[in-house]
Amino acid sequence: MKLRLMSTNQWACDKNQPKWEEIGADCSYSARMPGFLKYYMETKPDILGLQEVTAKMADKLMRLFSEADMPYALLWGKDTPIIYRTDLFELVDSKFLIYPEEFPGYEGSFNNSKTKSYNMGVFRIKESGQLFILMTTHLWWKSSDPASRNYQFGSDEARAYQIGLAINCLDKYQEKYNCPAVIMGDMNANWSKPCILAAKERGFVHCYDLAVDHRDEGNGHHYCFGDGYKGYTPTTADKAIDHILARGLSQGAVRCYDRYAPEYYMCLSDHIPVWIDVKIE
Predict the structure, then answer these.
(1) Residue 268 CA to chain centroid, in angstroms?
(2) Dihedrals phi, psi of 245, to nearest 5 degrees
(3) Confidence band, pLDDT 50/70/90 cuts, at residue 281
(4) How confident is the model over 112-123, as a mean pLDDT?
(5) Cα–Cα distance, 220 to 234 (Å, whole number)
(6) Which residues of 59-199 form beta strands (DSSP E)?
(7) Of the CATH numbers 3.30.1130.10, 3.40.50.720, 2.40.50.1020, 3.60.10.10, which one belongs to the domain with range 2-279?
(8) What per-residue confidence (pLDDT) applies to 165?
């Protein structure tokens, strides 16, 4: 059975901002969630691994799904919830963790807003009985580059530490259920950074590399913040900070690694969703 597994950072913003009001726009959750509904109706994800989702945003989106007769359920995980199709899947098990603020050996907080976390679900495909694990995560956001205005010493190492905690969890549940695992989300790091390399060292493969039919070549990030938004001019795929990694999939299982960036999406979030079409066997 081919599934569409999608990652979206929805930009946690509940209230409209003064700069948006000045340009006659509205970035409040109530204004943006119908745009996400339209996007998901067009792209038809089977599971959504989300990041930067407030309670108001999640509640509004689930109400919109219900009104549109779309059979989705919410696995709440604070800022990193999972939404899945109840007609296709049974939730077998789950685990949620807020990453610790402290990173051993380094000063300062590496989760000062307590929004960086992982949320994991073990799913059974109703049609086949096959199991698989999907985890969504949001890693620490600051830069390890001293030239950056968002510099914090140890940030690269903190992200590697956080994804290590996530993979420790996946190790346990993959052993328990003997099934493949997919980890996706906003990792705030490009392909060459320590957190991605650490995941690869533990057996995870980037789904861009696994895709056999199509690969999106963009980075999936554009300007959409409290002072306004701009269009999407993609750079190269290796500069992406949103990723989908997998371990234990059969050869050729990942058919595509894709994005879709319609103009109406530009005011919804700074992250263009990324997804894989994958066969779970």
Answers:
(1) 15
(2) -120, 150
(3) confident
(4) 96
(5) 6
(6) 72-75, 82-85, 89-98, 117-125, 131-138, 181-186
(7) 3.60.10.10
(8) 98
Q: Tens digit of pLDDT for each residue in 183-224?
A: 999 999 999 999 999 999 999 999 999 999 999 999 999 999
Q: Provide the 8-state DSSP code for 100.
A: P
* Token output for 84: 């899945």
Q: What is the CA radius of gyration of the chain?
A: 18
Closest-CA residue to 252 (of 218, 276, 279, 217): 279
Dihedral sign of CA atoms 73, 124, 260, 78 in order: positive
pTM above 0.90, yes or no: yes
Q: Which two tokens stand for residue 273?
A: 């969703």
Q: Which residues contact 233 (CB under 8 A, 6 or more apart)?
A: 222
Q: Hey, what are 214's tokens? A: 């199509």
- Percent composition of the chain: helix, strand, coil (DSSP 3-state, to 5): 25, 30, 45
Q: How would you classify the pairing of strands 89-98 and 205-206?
A: unpaired
CA distance 46 to 43: 10
